[in-house]
Specification:
By secondary structure, this protein is an alpha+beta fold. The protein folds into two domains: about 1-180 and about 395-420, Adenine-n6-DNA-methyltransferase TaqI, Chain A, domain 2 (Alpha-Beta Complex); about 220-365, DNA methylase specificity domains (Adenine-n6-DNA-methyltransferase TaqI, Chain A, domain 2, Alpha-Beta Complex). The protein is built from 14 helices and 25 strands. The protein has helices at about 1-10, 20, 120-125, 130-135, 145-150, 160-200, 205-215, 225-230, 255-260, 275-280, 325-335, 335-345, 355-360, 370-410, and strands at about 15, 20-25, 40-45, 50, 50-55, 60, 75, 80, 90-95, 100, 105-110, 155, 220-225, 230-235, 250, 265, 270, 280, 285-290, 290-295, 300-305, 310-315, 315-320, 350-355, 365. About 30% of the residues are buried.
Length: about 425
């Protein structure tokens, strides 16, 4: 790294306008009315993020509806920019070997290879995303970046040999981040599978029956319904508009999906005395269950309330009170056996629901409380391992990303020894 930085001190750099070193193409105005469920992918501004072209949440077109689209084709190694909306100025590199077509308000850079290295251009543009955004005009809600403004941006052009050396260093950082992300994701998936396997084994009727007999001779494992060992209470009234920065603690059903894990001791939202007085309340060791979801896999997600104070909760959820170990019951909610019971009783198409009168009939294996406690201790350790792995993922990637950004700035900063008219914008 020291050698390349020394080299750059003596490097002769020519500053040019982006319009001089690459062609810039605006996207095509596809008709939303002609979007289909399959066909050729349309690359929109929402598909550009974190330096990549993301093939998620795609819209599709039929090529028969649009003749002569070759100019707007997006292929591997293309460099794109979002030109309006929330992602204005974001740069995306097409890493995947897939074809898409450039939508309006998305631009594509086609570099002159005799002047600028494609990956050098990408790293430079990625480094000035904030500057690109600052060039946008229009209201705050809908900024717009013009192609003319982009073409006028100045770019330092060292020799192609130096460009290649810079690219080699910066690509090592980006490749390392990608590899690290893949490795950590793989580790997380491995631990999740391991946890799922042992959770379902520990909570299986066969295993629990065996262990129960070993604990007490001739004692049989009980198979009970939730209605036999606990009581459901339906929530009411709470809406997100009722939230305050302080006051009485509450949990909204939507937060169970997005904000809370397996257990909770503190809340994220509060309401006034007047609202709180009208709400159903959950006590310590109650299980709070969201009963409305967009998909059958998530419906019934729960959180065990371990806080010392009572907490109000919204409609579209229930509290479940039991004298058994609540974490044992909540772990049972995660099993494949419980999932199969949900699938039989869930209703709805766009919004999936389950009801208390059905959940009361759901069956779980119930060992003695002492065995429940032991199983919970084992599964809690698995939860901690999973949480540790999830925590490593963004933390380590962020650290490496900051390293990349630091050296990118150093390697792409050159002295300007020319007229102010050629200075970098």
């Amino acid at each position: 790294m020291t050698n390349i930085l020394e080299l750059l001190k003596n490097e002769k750099v020519e500053w040019k306008k982006l319009g001089e070193v690459c062609e810039f193409i605006n996207g095509f105005a596809f008709k939303s009315s002609l979007f289909s469920q399959n066909g050729e992918a349309v690359i929109r501004i929402t598909n550009i993020n974190s330096g990549k072209v993301i093939f998620d949440d795609l819209k599709y077109i039929k090529l028969d509806d649009y003749p002569e689209l070759d100019r707007y084709k997006v292929e591997k190694n293309d460099i794109l920019v979002a030109m309006s909306g929330a992602t204005t100025g974001k740069i995306g590199y097409q890493y995947e070997d897939r074809i898409g077509y450039l939508n309006q308000r998305v631009g594509k850079f086609i570099p002159d290879k005799s002047i600028v290295n494609r990956r050098f251009l990408f790293h430079f543009l990625y480094n000035i995303e904030s500057e690109l955004f600052s060039l946008a005009t229009g209201s705050g809600a809908q900024p717009n970046l013009s192609s003319e403004a982009i073409k006028k941006i100045n770019i330092p052009i060292p020799s192609l040999e130096t460009q290649e050396k810079i690219v080699e260093i910066l690509d090592k950082f980006t490749n390392y981040v990608t590899e690290l992300q893949s490795e950590l994701q793989s580790e997380l998936q491995s631990r999740t599978k391991q946890y799922t396997y042992y959770r379902d084994k520990l909570l299986s009727e066969e295993y629990l029956n065996k262990i129960t007999k070993e604990m007490e001779d001739d004692r049989k494992l009980e198979i009970v319904t939730l209605g036999e060992i606990g009581e459901f209470t339906r929530g009411n009234g709470l809406q997100k508009k009722d939230f305050k920065d302080k006051g009485n603690p509450v949990i909204h059903y939507g937060q169970i999906y997005t904000k809370y894990g397996f257990t909770a001791e503190k809340v994220l939202s509060y309401v006034s005395d007047e609202i709180f007085f009208k709400l159903r309340k959950a006590q310590k060791n109650d299980i709070l269950i969201a009963t409305t979801s967009e998909n059958i896999e998530d419906v019934g997600k729960s959180v065990v309330w371990l806080g010392d104070e009572e907490v109000g909760f919204s409609g579209d959820m229930y509290s479940y009170s039991t004298q058994q170990n609540p974490k044992y019951i909540a772990y049972c909610f995660q099993t494949n056996n419980f999932q199969r019971q949900k699938e039989k009783k869930a209703t709805g198409t766009k919004m999936i629901r389950i009801h208390a009168n059905d959940m009361e009939k759901f069956e779980i294996p119930l060992p003695p409380i002492s065995l429940q406690n032991k199983i919970v201790k084992v599964l809690d350790k698995f939860q901690i391992l999973l949480a540790d792995t999830k925590g490593l993922l963004p933390e380590e990637i962020e650290k490496r990303q900051k390293q990349y950004e630091y050296y990118r700035e150093k390697l792409l900063t050159f002295d300007v020894e020319c007229d102010s008219t050629h200075a970098r914008t």
